[in-house]
Amino acid sequence: MEIETSARLHLSLIDLNGLEGRLDGGIGITLEKPSLKMECLETNDDTIVEFNENISLSNKEIYESKILEAAQKIKEYLKIETDYSLKINETYQIHHGLGLGTQLALSTAKLISSLNHVNLNGYELAKIIQRGGTSGIGVHSFDKGGLIVDGGHKKSVKKDYLPSSASKVSPPPLLARYDFPEDWDIILVTPKISQGASGNEEINIFQSYSPININDVERICYLTLMKLMPSVLEVDIDSFGDSVKKIQSIGFKKIERDLQDSKINNLLKNMDDIGIPCVGMSSFGPTCFGITDSLSNKLKKELRDIAGNNTDICFTKGKNHGAIIKE
Questions:
Q1: Which of 160, 178, 196 is the last residue of a domain?
Q2: Structure confidence by residue, pLDDT tens digits, 134-155
């Protein structure tokens, strides 16, 4: 059995203040690529993780640990002792702001549950394997694709400011899901610098900089509801870009951006200067993105010129469906 899912952009968390009794909330976009493709079959040996011979990674142990942890949790839930061989046939870099950790874990749990004829959706699987404890973008993208807005967590359930890697509460509810405009192109630009914050470093950042000023939270809510969401429905790239730019200049996203290597914000400024209507950084980076409805050859050349040699560039689209599983 094989599954195919893909990366997501995380535009911003909404509320790291909690004045009205909720924390977190998120805004994100499902991407067509880069993709994750995994296959799974029963084995008589221990559960193992394999990689296609064409995949070259220096940190395979991180991928393995996330897959094996998810496999153990779903096996315990299903009350089975069967072992599995899980093989990654296509993947992308972890801790680069594209949400791979959640996709690895959900894909593992979906494959094993499906092989046991148990039909669980992404939200149910995430509760079992304890993903989505801060942002629900990856969980809902796995299920439905599109542009996602999630509603965060009650403070009675989640009592502290923590990233998803350290929060074991259930995923947040889905507030809104829209098809992402098919005519909009998405550009991923990833400088070859240190990976985004993770682990204890990420926990310390959440603890040190929260709570966020309530005025910023209110502004993010207003921009999301009254500009970003309508602009997707009306296919208004300029309004969408302006809303993302303003949202990324305040609140916790501003902190994430301020903590980056200077190359990140210089790159984003240069992307804005060459006329890309929407630019930003996904999660803790280092992946930056541009969104446009006019991806000309001239723009591609200018982008490559400003990005330089030590940068990976990927051209993609939004994806309006969830993971695909094949027998």
A1: 178
A2: 999 999 999 999 999 999 999 9
